[in-house]
């Protein structure tokens, strides 16, 4: 610590006499700056206590034993607490589909919620999650995942919202706002993390312009919404591990964006060098007392890193906690709210708003959907996933719901008087017979945690380079934990591994065969696909009259599906990405790559640039009613973009929700004609109802990053503005704007 810093601290101590964290919180509530309160607390800590603020409380081998015995995050992971001064530290609970501790509400996965395009609903979900985090003993939610997936094979694509920065940013910001009153929200994984199997090895190369324009704006949006923390990724970016990447952690996050919260590492294997991570701006090592507890004292002694860096990180951690406790509601939520009736109803609503109707063709002169309850006497519900509790992967985002409503259960509950026939499809002849006997066949296919998700691979624990990150076991008990870990790894050799990046983007062959057999047996065949990333369906989709993207729909998904199929609710979900017609139309992807370039050519933009037509474009989805977009005009140009007014109407016969999407394209310059998503809005309309919708849209997607000036340069010349129901939809309205 420098003399000037020491004098400043002593001055603060004389002015404010604060002896405990609780008293400091009261001082902050009375209007005193949290940074000054943090200084007062820090000055009272011993050097050993100061270092302990920067890593987990649980000793490494004890923590490893807990995971092996009870599973991941079975309790909140406490980091950086100090009992003597009452500093609570970080009580970490993971997400994002809900609270992973205990038996909490399992919401649909984030990609499903992204398909709702419903910012208000996502904020409600955030409020529910924040309350459940707090009721579960946590004060920190590590589940605002906002990585942009440049390829649909990414194993953890279910944890983010879209491949469109505008949509990711709005939804991530909404989740932050919802969680924030009751838990510190953490946005992750910063940054350029969208490869699962190679995440501990890959070096992602990305130029500053592309990074700022495509892969970082949503982080900035969620940060500005009030994120308390940012979690670094495992991978390298431009040659440096994310945990020691000063360009990301300091130059961009703090110097350019002004972030005043703290940075937390991803778990166990993110930090490769204790001193380098601290020097680059990594504040807290998660989740255990590991590399920093073991090696940082000697590295401080040697001068590899200075105590000023310890102080900087410690003050960020203390100040962020003071802000949180000073602002959070005083009343504690009752444990009964966890997966209670209100939150289950919210999960059901989220599932209803998320599912996407991709196809609804006529059979016998009318659309297959919605089903007519009055005439419906029997339904065959078929497929291996039709009665499986399939809420997503089994990794760090796994929510252990006490009960999950499957499609079969939901349909049975909705139609108690009908005959519900069921077969898992393993016996094709039996399934064909049931399909042929029923009025309608509902075939549920897709993926499970075995095919996509976080890579749950025990071999990682014993890799030579990663074993070097563990402290040496010092007691018989710790040596026993290590021995048990190695024994389990040996026993797992040769057994199938689950999760990871998808090896194939189409359905399993047996699922396609089931679809075709059931369609042949019953022309009124409805296919429901459970997935997170886009699925290659070109070879069979037009053989079935009705197709629903059902996602991993959470604990109430079966009820939601039944309500939608029966027309009790109207489909409102729209694709949060484009579905390509062929894998050849996608960006290059190598799940085992050690180096890869991230450019701006992915998703709908790449398809358009290459002259490829999407099978289903960005924002696509059908409804049981029809809408018209009659006009759009610019009300004003604001500092953040444009305020538009759009005239829309429900011209169908059912109440429904219009998903109004705003696209823009420059008429000149190097990116002329590139149509980009600028904003979106939702409106519920009754049959015949007409409404004028006000919508705020950003011009940043059309702007170019100037690295020399460290700012976005807005577009110049004429801009074409389109109000549309999906990317490239012919029936919309447009206007032009001269800048």
TrEMBL record:
Pfam families assigned: Glyco_hydro_3, Glyco_hydro_3_C
Keyword Acyltransferase appears in the UniProt entry: no
Single GO BP term: glucan catabolic process
Gene3D superfamilies assigned to the protein according to its UniProt record, in alphabetical order: Glycoside hydrolase family 3 C-terminal domain, Glycoside hydrolase, family 3, N-terminal domain, Immunoglobulins
Superkingdom, taxonomy of origin: Bacteria
Domain Glycoside hydrolase family 3 C-terminal: 355-624
InterPro entries according to UniProt: Cellulose_deg_GH3 (IPR050288), GH (IPR017853), Glyco_hydro_3_C (IPR002772), Glyco_hydro_3_C_sf (IPR036881), Glyco_hydro_3_N (IPR001764), Glyco_hydro_3_N_sf (IPR036962), Ig-like_fold (IPR013783)
Occurrences of domain Glycoside hydrolase family 3 N-terminal (ranges): 81-318
Listed GO MF terms: beta-glucosidase activity
Keywords on record: Hydrolase
Family in the record: Belongs to the glycosyl hydrolase 3 family.
Protein name, per record: Beta-glucosidase
